[in-house]
C-alpha cells in the first residue's frame, strides 16, 4: 500500500460552480502511478465547497448557483456579517455541499462516471485562490 499527498492551488474564480477536474489532474502527476486506490480531495476553506456533478452541460452549474442562492440567500438576518453579505451564506452552502470528496482510482485516473466531474463551488463574490489537499492511497503500478 502506498500513499502520496500534495497541495493543489486553484486560481481565484468568480462566484458560481466551476468544473475543475482537469485543473486538479494537471497538478497531480502522482495519480498516474496508482493502479487502484482512493483519492481524498479536501478543500481547505469554509466559504467554498466541492461536489461531483454534471460535466457536460454548463447550464447545470448555472442552475445550481441559482438554487443555492435560494436555499441560502444573502438577505436573511444573519449575525455573522463582518466579512460582507455573501460570507455567512457561503458558510451555509459550504456546510450543505461539503469540502471533501472520495473518488476511486483505477489505472492512474479518477474513476468517475461518464457525466461526472469535480466542481469547485465558489460562494464568495471576491474570493482568493483556493487550496486543495489531495491524498492518494492504493497500489502503485508495477
What does this structure look like?
It is built from three helices and eight strands. It has 142 residues and is of the alpha+beta class. The mean pLDDT is 97.
The amount of beta strand, in percent, is 35-45%
Poorly predicted regions:
none
Overall pLDDT score: 97
What structural class is derived from the secondary structure elements?
Answer: alpha+beta
**What is the 3D shape?**
elongated
Largest sheet: 5 strands, antiparallel
* Strand ordering within the main sheet: 1-8-3-5-6
Rg value: 16 Å
Query: Helicity, in percent?
Result: 10-25%
Give a count of the beta strands, DSSP E runs of length 2 or more: 8
Order of helices and strands: EEHEEHHEEEE
Number of helices: 3
Terminal Cα span? 12 Å
Provide key terms for this protein:
142 residues, alpha+beta, 5-stranded antiparallel β-sheet, 3-stranded antiparallel β-sheet, 3 helices, 8 strands, 21% helix, 40% strand
Could you write a compact summary of the structure shown?
This protein is 21% helix and 40% strand. It is α+β, with helices and mostly antiparallel strands.
Note the topology.
Layout: E1 2-10, E2 16-19, H1 21-26, E3 34-43, E4 48-54, H2 59-71, H3 87-97, E5 100-106, E6 109-110, E7 116-122, E8 130-140
Antiparallel strand pairs: 1-8, 2-7, 3-5, 3-8, 4-7, 5-6
Amino acid at each position: 500500500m502506498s500513499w502520496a499527498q500534495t497541495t493543489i492551488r486553484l486560481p481565484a474564480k468568480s462566484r458560481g460552480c466551476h468544473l475543475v477536474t482537469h485543473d486538479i489532474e494537471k497538478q497531480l502527476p502522482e495519480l498516474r502511478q496508482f493502479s487502484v486506490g482512493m483519492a481524498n480531495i479536501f478543500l481547505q476553506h469554509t466559504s467554498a465547497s466541492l461536489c461531483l456533478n454534471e460535466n457536460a452541460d454548463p447550464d447545470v452549474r448555472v442552475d445550481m448557483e441559482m438554487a443555492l442562492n435560494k436555499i441560502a440567500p444573502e438577505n436573511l438576518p444573519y449575525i455573522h456579517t463582518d466579512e460582507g453579505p455573501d460570507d455567512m451564506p457561503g458558510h451555509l452552502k459550504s456546510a450543505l455541499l461539503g469540502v471533501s470528496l472520495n473518488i476511486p482510482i483505477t489505472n492512474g485516473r479518477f474513476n468517475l462516471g461518464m457525466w461526472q466531474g469535480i466542481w469547485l463551488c465558489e460562494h464568495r463574490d471576491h474570493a482568493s485562490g483556493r487550496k486543495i489537499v489531495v491524498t492518494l492511497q492504493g497500489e502503485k503500478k508495477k
